[in-house]
Amino acid sequence: MPQLNPSPWFFIMIITWLTFSLIIQPKVLKFTTTNPPHNKKPKTFKTTPWTWPWT
């Protein structure tokens, strides 16, 4: 069963991990969000208690 031989797959995994962490990840983290959060006050709604007909 050749898939159990870690020799080629370990090298591919290490190269992929290094490519992602050193090249792709910094480029992705440079992007700014298109919808930044605002310091808005949350809306508070006035609620009325529910009147149950059987009570």
UniProtKB/TrEMBL annotation:
Recorded superkingdom: Eukaryota
GO (cellular component) term, any one: mitochondrial membrane
Entry keyword set: ATP synthesis, CF(0), Hydrogen ion transport, Ion transport, Membrane, Mitochondrion, Transmembrane, Transmembrane helix, Transport
InterPro entries given in the database record: ATP8_metazoa, ATPase_protein_8
Keyword Mitochondrion among UniProt keywords: yes
Mode of membrane association: Single-pass membrane protein
Record keyword Mitochondrion present: yes
Pfam families for the chain: ATP-synt_8 (PF00895)
Compartments where found: Mitochondrion membrane
Listed transmembrane segments: 6-24
Any one GO molecular function term: proton transmembrane transporter activity
GO terms (BP aspect): proton motive force-driven ATP synthesis
Family: Belongs to the ATPase protein 8 family.
PANTHER family hit by this protein: ATP SYNTHASE PROTEIN 8
Protein known as: ATP synthase complex subunit 8
Native source species: Gracupica nigricollis
Origin organism lineage: Eukaryota, Metazoa, Chordata, Craniata, Vertebrata
Name of the gene: ATPase8
